[in-house]
Amino acid sequence: MTTQTISESTVTRRLSAGAAVFDVSHFGRLRISGADAIDLLNRLTTNDLEKLRPGMGMGAALTTNKGRIIDLLRVLRRGEDLLALTSPDVQDRVSEWIDFYTFSEDVAVADVTPDTKQYLIVGSNASEQLARSGYCVDALGEADLSHATESEGDGEYTLARTSFGELPAFELVVSGSRAPARIVAETLGQTELARLRIEQGTPAYPDELNERRNPLEANLKPYISFNKGCYIGQEVVARLDTYDRVQRFLCQLSVRGDTEVEPGSAVIVDGNEVGEVTSSAPGLALAYLRKRFYEDGAAVDVASGGGLVSAKVRDIRPPAYFE
Amino acid sequence: MSAFRSEEVRRMTQTAPAPLTISIDREAANHVQVFAEQSGRPGANLRVAVKGGGCAGMTYVLDLVNDPREDDKIIEDHGMELYVDRKSYIFLAGTTLEYSGGLNGKGFVFNNPNAKTTCGCGTSFSV
Q: CA of A65: which chain B residue's CA is closest?
């Protein structure tokens, strides 16, 4: 049996030797302002946002009081406000959630999604390509979501350094007339982005990130502070971690041949259902797998298309899970 | 009026729910006044509020204040005034603020009929 490994995959290989631009304007963008914005958001999310200084950013999961995921936010602290990057189509839910928990705080949330555009630039040459296109890459720190905002003409742009799995990446949010065409890089579409996401083991809303899942099983541990104090869902998340009660983790499946298994398919070991496929591309899938069966290289089957398809498990948990 | 009608009217008037308010019992009010004096603000009143956060979703807030804010609900009870903003009031209506003293006491305790669950330490609740 031959299985495709991540090093053989097409989009990753292309971007390991170059860079590409993805239009991700369908993702959500919220501008959160007011003197209490950080304090309030810190009480609602898993990461320690109080540590943010202007020009810094961090990922933080918004969770219910049962510790389930509403969305993974990327929060950028700009000079006067916070820019929260949400998943597609969930910005209204995030905005309503923040509004519900705003009592007497000085906080205002504005959905700037329709007024802005967002681009993801991924690849080993992304930094050089952006610099060549006149963007302020040199102004960014090395940390994840370190960012800078520059005005130009009637608009402005915010550029943030990040990563997409193991690949260097940048998020670019533009308003006004700043044209994305100025980026000197290949433009790829949503099919390639979906493929890249699965190759890189990156969970996404709503397939992997949703209110059925907690942040620990979705590999979001790097975005959880265990000593920041209370936030909504903290008691559940802390208990799951302290008592090792997480029941499943997100894994990658290398599927035999180029078979594209169906999302929702059961992962089978010895005739028993031990997991569920959440996203798939030809020869590759992401799945939640019961902890007992979560072993790098383990053979499993996927029940798809009326039969069983062989697959191998790949452990894609970030280093935070092994510290 | 027939006996039946009289009984019906009596029952209806008896079972009509009293308007939900927020109250403080005497011991809690005494402790607020002691804290106010200790902090050099004798005669201060009490802001009772809710804010988002805490493990369960909402946490209680108590604060000594001199004056209400515009649009606050003002409740007089046991010789003091409670100030409650209107949004907090929705989640606190019917609450009695009590004081649990002694070595094993918890201090101020919110008996809130709206709270469906509370977190382990009891400082936050969900509705």
A: B56
CATH of the domain at B30: 2.60.300.12
Q: Given an 8 Å threshold on Cβ–Cβ distance, is A65 in contact with B50?
A: no
d(CA A37, CA A47): 14
Q: Whole-angstrom Cα distance, residue A129 to residue B103?
A: 67
- Report all structural domains of chain A as residue ranges with CATH numbers, in order of start: 6-199 (3.30.1360.120), 247-322 (2.40.30.110)
Beta strand B23-24 pairing with A307-315: unpaired
Amino acid identity for residue A187 in this structure: T
Which of helix, strand or coil describes residue A283?
Answer: coil
Among the partner-chain residues A43, A233, A235, the one whose CB lies closest to the CB of B120 is A235
Measured in whole angstroms, the distance separating CA A152 from the mean position of its chain's CA atoms is: 29
Work out the minimum CA distance from B83 to partner chain A, whole angstroms. Answer: 13
pLDDT for the residue B48:
96
Residue B5 lies in a domain: no
- B residues 88..107 contacting A (CB < 8 A): 88
CA-to-CA separations, B32 to A93, A154, B28, B110, in angstroms, rounded: 39, 55, 6, 14
- What is the pLDDT, as a whole number, of residue B7? 64
Q: Which of B49, B117, B124 sits opposite A104 (nearest CB)?
A: B49
Report, as ranges of residue numbers, the positions in chain A whose pLDDT lies below 70.
1-9, 177-181
Structure confidence at residue B100 as a pLDDT band (50, 70, 90): confident
Element at A268 (helix H, strand E): strand A266-269
